[in-house]
Amino acid sequence: MLHSRVQQSQSPPPAYKISGYYNQHLMKKKLLLAAAFASLSTTGMLAQTATPAPRKWSGDIELQLQQPATTTGIKGQGSTAAPKGVIITCSDPQTVIDSITAMGYTATAISKDVITADIPIASVPRVATLEQVNYINGTRQFFPTLNNTRTSIGADRVQNGTGLETPFTGKGVIIGVIDQGFEYKHLAFLDKDGKSRVRALWNHAARQNPTTTIPSTGDYMAANGHATHVTCIAAGSKVEGNDYYGVAPGADIIMVPSSFSDQHILQEAKYISDFAKKEGKPFVINMSFGSQTGPHDGTSAYDQGMNALSCEGGILVAAMGNEGDMRLHVHHRFTQDNETVNVVIDSEKASRTYTTLDLWEMSGDGQEHLTIRPFIFTNSTRSKDYKNETFWRQAQIYKEIDPYNHKEHHNFMVPRSIFERQGTKIFFGVEITGNAGDEFHAWVNPDFGEIYTVAGKREYLIGDNKYCAGEGAASIPTAVAVASYNGGRGSFVSAIDNKTYSFGGNLTTQGAISDFSSRGPGLGLEPKPLVAAPGAAVASAVSRYGSDFDAKSVDIVSIIKKGLGPSYYYRVMNGTSMATPAVTGTIALWLEANPKLTYEQVKQIIRQTSRRDQYTGTDTEWTPEAGYGKIDAYEGLKLALQMACQSGINNPMNSETPVTLQTDNEGFRILFNNDESQATLSLYTVNGQEVRRRQLNNIRRGQETVLSKAGLAPGVYIVRISTTASTMSRKMLVK
Prior knowledge:
This protein is of the alpha+beta class. It contains 13 helices and 34 strands.
């Protein structure tokens, strides 16, 4: 029963309802970049105005304003009257966009405080007079290509066999891709003899049976070209006429067009696993999708079901999400009894028909701690609880004690139509009351709104971008969660008009973590993200059947046509969806070198070999922006080979002692001496407080895992390992 005068929906959704939330658009929100490209068309000149003080534009713009004649020889500069791409930081994007549009020029919102625009340099001072404008930046150029991805992560050296006994291309490894928008017979998926490298196809979304016959058309080909782009990054073939092939071009491919419901994804991942087992090959599954609805701690039934697959010879690779520049999360710990705080959702930021909030109390003791009261927020004021039962009956509101993590859970799905009142801003809000020590996290789903900031009132929580590892993919405990960094190196040339285009925002900063890349950490024990890979402005194959495909779009960088057949296209996209397959392909290379790699070993490789720099943090081993750093396919492969050559560690003798336990700098290292159906690993203080817990299934003799020491205070701890057959405990010291 809700602690509220609000009536609960008569037919509430299930506690973990992802169907409808898993949508390629969630991961692709930042992928469609045409609006961010600098326009090169000319328009009329606006009269130049006096320079405001202080100056609100960058030095390169000032040079063009003051000395235009001397800059005509610099590439990209010239007449101050021709529209040029600029990046504007501002407090109110829409007001600035409206002003620029009224001048006769174009502008596009990038984030909550950044827009791009095409305006004459001569008009910059005029735009700068707007009080909402903070600063105007000239754009820099970078070159977004898939071949640069391979170079950036060291995959080219692996494919060429540089310093190795043999080249590695992912041969003998299966890459499964669960997604939407496959062009099954794209040239990127054919071998040198013109035969398909797609070993199997399961169009689960169309309720078809798995098949090895690859169709020319079919359901879910008409979805956007996301899946084609992703698959080519991971495993695309070399095609004469361009250099946009994948990280593991020798791997076998399984395509699974998905509905993105969690039920189907479980089945689809299992199908890939079963196919690989039948073939006797290692496999890696790419998951470039996600949601923010869920506990974010890896405890759900779905998470555990997916997690089991990684214990059966496979590796899961998942996108962190594209919410790094959004305020979708709030966190609060109550410091006194009967303390009340409020969260308001800006429904005007929602592109969907619903506004959402998913709230989790953190105690995990199976008890109710919070009192929740939904309310209406209008004209910057919190109203009293809305008493119109008909009004609230349209909403889906429920609470529960989650059966898997025992946390108190509240979920709200409120139709936007409720708040669309003519001439008045009406937002949805939630009042939360708790006692000292109570703590909660809450999330809004991307495209369903953002946390609204109420100025000057502390009782209204301010949203942030933390703890946003995507549910359904990155949330899986043993999924390799991938962040994005900018791997480009300049501008790109369109295959449509042969003109040079560039992007705005922080994408112009080579090597920086992409502003759209979702930030960690997760609430589970495993690090989220684990690693970063190039995901900004990546060129790869795209489906010509996609609903968003435009054969004349300037972001197409290559068109290949064989004889009298159809044309095949390659285009530029952004997102952690693009970073993820770079890691998927890399792990396929490692699996070719060492087919028995486990998740723990992959994590060890990433931890030991990933590159760190000024953007990932050189003084910190792990960061919520980049994990352990930027993936290095080459150094990682060498370590994978070393692991394959090691003797003894992977073949311990069967023993009555369930594990061999030792400690090192990383943590408490556990080597299983027997095959086990399941095991629970727990770490306690001497006072009996549990501080670490991990559940493993389908354990193989010789498998290793680590209970991390990270964040533990010095002292004595008790490690307890329970299997189906035995239990052992041992005191361990943390210095």
